[in-house]
Amino acid sequence: MSTFKTALRMALAHPLYLLIYTVFISLMGVFIAASVSWNSSQLTEYKPYDANVIVVDRDDSDLSRALTKHLGSRFELVTGVGDDTYDLADALSKSNSAKGSADCVFFIPEGFEGDLVAAARAGQALPKLDVTYGAGTMAAALSSAEASRWISLAGAAAALEPTASNGGVAKAAEHAAAKRAEVEIEQVKVDSTAAATLESYFNFGAYAIISSVIVSVGLVFSGMNEPERVRRMDAGPISERQRSLAVFAAAAVLTVCIWFVSSMMGVAGFAGAVAEVGVGRVCLALSATFALACTPLAVGFALSSLGAREELLNGVGNLLGMLMTFLGGAWMPLSLMGSAVQTVAHFVPTFWVNDAISKALAADLTSAVLGDIACDLGVTALFAVAIAAAGLALARAKSRA
Fold first, then answer.
1. What is the distance between the alpha carbons of residues 381 and 375, in angstroms, rounded to a whole number?
2. What residues does the ABC-2 type transporter transmembrane domain cover (predicted)?
């Protein structure tokens, strides 16, 4: 019992780690899950992203006027602003809701038309516009890409029709730029906002569990394996086997406490969602996060077998926490990643845990779905067993050496 208490006291001697990794990160997960918008099902019509642009035309040619007209048809063309530096800077500094505000300013230089046509027909690089961005960098980048697209189309028209007038090149560019891909809204079935919110929290909450357990448990194992402490315990009446079991029991209790605190913060924060989804489904999802907690427990044990200290445990805990949650799809849906990333994701436990969570919170829990969840939990447990076995082998090799 004394060994068990000593091991727990070693973890509690670092309350800041428990506070940051368990409480603070879990609280951050509550805010992230609460801020996730699941109103996409209400979107029935595609609306292009808008931007406020200013065009300073110093060429006053057919092509420059056509480019200005095109930008005005695609975005909100801000007029009535002087072209001196002070007025333009004032427009860029205003908020989007203010009158006369702009996301970016395009400067069409003098000689733009002649340079564009000549470069296109000579096979040279086309001239570029000078662009100044405001605070809305995303909108400015979008409008800048649209202007570059129009210039490329005008250059292609000039090269394909060597005898065409500048006005003809402008009309050809306008005609080509008017063609756009058809966009439709694909309605994605979401069983409930409550289920989606809980799934988001549990997916992100894995970061708190992984990092906190690795650091806290690793500190317990490494502290109990210090040579001076081992010599003192060897002089006592408790056998090495009993000491090892007591230390492992303390680490297991610590892991359960971390999992419980992190999980209950989500359950308490989204009590309404839990009531809507159902306690049984939420408990099934929590069983998946509990299975995940066994993996960082094994990682902490393996790292201590290698002699890892506080700094290394912190680094590995944070790195593995971010990496495993990323590959589990907590930061970005795996469907948006490449096939190589999706393949690698199968080799981390968070992938299987998040799959089990999504199925546990689904609308229909059939026998087939329950079987899939059991398979996911089994694979997750195998990760912990494999890492723990490696840790035992390292510990045995170290003791023999």
1. 10
2. 23-390
What CA–CA distance (Å, rounded) separates 241 from 268? 40
For helices 193-224 and 310-327, the axis angle rounded to 10 degrees is 160
Domain boundary among 118, 142, 177: 177
How far is it, in rounded angstroms, from Cα 41 to Cα 39?
5
Tally Cβ neighbours within 10 Å of residue 339. 7
Is 253's pLDDT higher than 80? yes
pTM over 0.70: no
Instruction: Dig out the tokens for 5 from the structure.
Output: 């208490």
Structure tokens belonging to residue 382: 């195998």
Domain-embedded: residue 47: no
CATH number at residue 103: 3.40.1710
The residue type found at 367 is: S
Beta bridge partners of 104: 53, 133
DSSP string, 296-327: HHHHHHHHHHTT--HHHHHHHHHHHHHHHHHH
Tokens matching residue 44: 């029935």
